Amino acid sequence: MIHLDIHNETATLKAVLLGIADDFGGTPTVGDCYDPKSKLHVIEGTYPTEANCSAELQALAQVLDKYNIQIFRPENIKGLNQIFSRDIAFVIEDKLVLPNIIQQRRGETHALGALLDQLKPNSTISMPEEARAEGGDVMPWNDYIFVGYSEEEDFRMYTSARTNRAGLDFLASTFSSKKVKGLELIKSDDDPRENALHLDCCFQPIGMGKAILYRDGFKQPEDVEFLVNYFGHENLIEITQDEMHEMNTNVFSIAEDVIVSESGFIRLNKLLRDLGFTVEEVPYAETSKMGGLFRCSTMPLIRR
Question: Which domains does the chain have, with CATH numbers?
Answer without folding.
Answer: 13-297 (3.75.10.10)
